[in-house]
Amino acid sequence: MSQQRWRERNNPARLEGRYEFENYEALRAFLDDAADLSEKAGLFPDIGFGRTYANFTIHADAGESKLTDAQREFALLLDALETADQA
């Protein structure tokens, strides 16, 4: 997992990541791809965004004190999307 992009937090358990883009069009393409990924994975992070950035928070499941391997893998898949979108 990208140590620079994602920070794991406790209390409550979550991953927080930030993506930055050169323009809104690049951001929009990434968000569309992230939405498709969310549907396929069945994971729906909290997302906040502005014109050229997006902040993602992946929370542990309700009632759980730790993140799952699937949630960590989802973060890696988001990183891969960003790389693919910028290629």
Number of strands: 4
Give the amount of beta strand, in percent: 25-35%
How would you state the average pLDDT, rounded?
Answer: 92
Strand order within the widest sheet? 1-2-4-3
CATH architecture: 2-Layer Sandwich
Which structural category fits the helices and strands? alpha+beta
- By CATH's scheme, which homologous superfamily applies? Transcriptional coactivator/pterin dehydratase
The CA-CA distance between the termini, in Å, is 20 Å
Quaternary state reads single chain
Tally of helical runs: 2
Rounded to an integer, what's the Rg over CA atoms? Answer: 13 Å
What is the string of SSEs from the N terminus onward? EEHEEH
Reported by name, the CATH topology is Gyrase A, domain 2
Shape: globular
What this model shows, in words?
It is a single chain. 41% of the residues lie in helices and 25% in strands. Strands 1-2-4-3 form a 4-stranded antiparallel beta sheet, covered by helices on one side. The chain has helices spanning 24-41, 69-86, and strands at residues 6-9, 14-20, 46-49, 53-59. It has one domain: Gyrase A, domain 2. With 87 residues, the chain is an alpha+beta fold. Helix 1 (24-41) runs antiparallel to helix 2. The chain is built from 2 helices and 4 strands; from the N terminus they run ββαββα. It is globular and about 35 Å long.
